[in-house]
Write a structure and sequence with these properties.
- The chain is an alpha+beta fold.
- The chain has one domain (3-87).
- The chain has helices at 3-7, 12-29, 49-57, 80-87, and strands at residues 39-43, 63-67, 70-71, 74-75.
- It has a two-stranded parallel sheet with strand order 1-2. The chain has a two-stranded antiparallel ribbon with strand order 3-4.
- Strand 1 (39-43), helix 3 and strand 2 (63-67) form a beta-alpha-beta unit.
- The two termini are 33 Å apart.
Length: 93
C-alpha cells in the first residue's frame, strides 16, 4: 500500500482500512507458522512529513519502505524518456 496514494485521494484510500484489517487477521491466523508483516510504502514528500508521521504512528506497521518518485523536480512517472535519463545519470545538471 502506498501512503502517497492515500494522501492524494486515490481509490486506494478507501481500501486502506480493509488492507490493515486483512493483514492483522492474517498475522493472527498464521501466528507461529509464518511471519506476516504489515507494511507500507511512503514516498518522500518534504511538505507531507508531519502528516506521514501521524498516519504511520496510528497503525502497528512492522515496516515502512521509503521511496522517492521525484528527483530534482522531475517525476519519474512523467515519461519513460525522463526516467531513462535519470537512470543513466544523463542531463541531471
Amino acid at each position: 500500500m502506498d501512503l502517497y496514494l492515500l494522501l492524494e485521494g486515490h481509490s486506494a484510500k478507501s481500501e486502506f482500512p480493509a488492507y490493515i484489517a486483512e493483514v492483522l487477521a492474517l498475522k493472527k491466523e498464521f501466528a507461529g507458522r509464518i511471519a506476516v508483516m504489515l507494511g507500507i510504502e511512503a514516498d518522500f514528500l518534504p511538505q507531507s512529513l508531519e502528516l506521514y508521521r501521524e498516519i504511520i504512528a496510528g497503525y502497528p506497521f512492522d515496516y515502512v519502505i521509503g521511496s522517492i518518485h521525484d528527483f530534482g523536480g522531475i517525476s519519474i512517472y512523467a515519461s519513460c524518456n525522463i526516467y531513462l535519463r535519470i537512470a543513466n545519470f544523463e542531463n541531471l545538471v
